[in-house]
Amino acid sequence: MPETCICCFMKYPDPGRVKTRLAADTGDAVACEIYTCLVQDVLHVLSALDAESHLYCHPTEKADLLAGLYGTDRRCLGQEGADLGARMRKALEDSLAAGYGNAVVIGSDIPGLSSGIIREACEVLTENDCVIGPARDGGYYLIGFRKNGFIPAVFDGIAWGTPSVLSETIALLEQAQAVFHILPMLEDIDTIDDLCRYVQRNQNADTHTMRYLREHDVSKKAICI
User: Measured on CA atoms in the order 161, 166, 167, 173, is the torsion positive or negative?
Assistant: First the structure.
């Protein structure tokens, strides 16, 4: 895994700018705090891995603030590009150009993302051009490439933020005749229904997110139980 660079994509937690669909039911401040907890949980997962990991902040100008916020010694860089696809492509290109054998982009709000899944993603890149982790909403929570198998075109022309992201990406991989591996499907937390399902599955979990939800009775207020 030391040959792998993990690029963790995240937003600076400004209330009203993160988890806006969830905020419709919880309010901007609570949604923002939940997002911060989700990020802390992902950072905890990354700390258990023998791999380089960099944080990629959106918007770019708040990268230094993000690094200070999470008290991390990881490199914190700005996301560069006109849309999500361009930003992911640039992060992967830069990582591979820097000498890493593999580069993987992950999301920061996937509570089911474990160190085991990330290890699997890195390991399968020894025999596959690409690895992709499907999200239940039709997108993906992880995408990675080995250096000799990188296909920049899979980030072009995608309808980002729609349920067709995964299927469009797989179609482009197949068109390029790439050898790829699909990871287990996971669910992110974008809506109050997503949050309720998370609470029901993780009643006794000792994570930043569940501790926050229990301490603030968010699950009861959201009628999750």
Answer: positive
For 135-139, 165-169, 202-206, which range has the lowest pLDDT when averaged over its residues? 202-206
On whether residue 58 sits in a domain, the answer given is yes
Which is it for the CA torsion 34, 36, 39, 45, positive or negative?
A: negative
Three-state secondary structure string covering 112-131: CCCHHHHHHHHHHCCCCCEE
> Does residue 225 surpass a pLDDT of 60?
no
Q: Which domain holds residue 12?
A: 4-187
pLDDT at 210 over 70: yes
Helix extents (H) in 71-191? 84-97, 115-124, 165-175
108 vs 84: CA distance, rounded Å: 14
Domain of residue 79, CATH code: 3.90.550.10
Helix then strand then coil, % of the chain, to nearest 5 = 45, 20, 35
Domains identified in the chain, total number: 1
Give 129's contacts (C-beta < 8 A, 6+ positions apart).
145, 146, 148, 149, 150, 151, 178, 179, 180
Segment 51-72 mean pLDDT: 91
Task: Enter the pTM of the model.
Answer: 0.94
In this prediction, residue 50 has a pLDDT band, given cuts at 50, 70 and 90, of confident
Which residues share a beta bridge with 6? 53, 104
